[in-house]
Amino acid sequence: MIMLVLLVLLxxxxxxxxxxIYLHCFLxxxxxxxxxxxxxxxxxxxxxxxxxxDPKKWAWKHRDHHNxxxxxxxxxxxxxxxxxxxxxxxxxxxxKPGPKDVVDYRPDWVxxxxxxxxxGISGLLILATIGTFTTGSxxxxxxxxxxxxxxxxCFAVLFSALNAFAHEAGRPQEGxxxxxxxxxxxxxxxxxxxxxxxxxxxxxLARFASLDPSWPIIRxxxxxxxxxxxxxxxxx
Length: 236
Prior knowledge:
The structure is a single chain. By secondary structure, this protein is mostly helical. Helices cover 55% and strands 3% of the residues. The chain has one domain (2-229). The longest helix has 27 residues, at 2-28. Strands 1-2 form a two-stranded antiparallel ribbon. Helix 1 (2-28) packs across helix 3. It has helices spanning 2-28, 37-51, 55-67, 81-93, 121-135, 139-165, 187-190, 196-201, 215-223; strands spanning 32-35, 227-229. It has nine helices and two strands, in the order αβααααααααβ.
């Protein structure tokens, strides 16, 4: 049981880092100007297999979120925070980007794999297979399924919590951004995404705050020549 919890926790951290660096900073905002294809492809593959996320669709939805369009599925201005918390993934599932949406998205080799991200089912199959070989019995199928389901559930909860509670309810006033707020109780598991007001104030920057836990990773990628973030940081 302890090993299951630790494995799910480790996988969750990787998923949140991939979401932050690849989906959020690189694809949605180009706060990371360039990301090496090996890094981007690996993060894309991880998220597609284990969460079922379509990166182009995610970037489209997230840009709508920052543009405050009526199609924004996340801000709880009219629906309320708890409604958004429970319905975030239903909003994400609706629609698909058109030809004029996310025109700067460039498909990579992961996009060419049929059904690779279909609702994360490929992750279930892979983890069930690994569980079977690891345990040497068919009981490994249930272990793999438990890991897959637990990780998917925890990732969905964190994503939903950020969308709901990192924004205040009520209609935003003109010039008041989206009433995004920094939420410290989300700090331990969200890799800086909790500094949401800072991010909304300066979405083109990859560093969200002085205590941003993702920033050393981004800087490490930059040092290795694998990423190029925009300079500067948001205030904490």
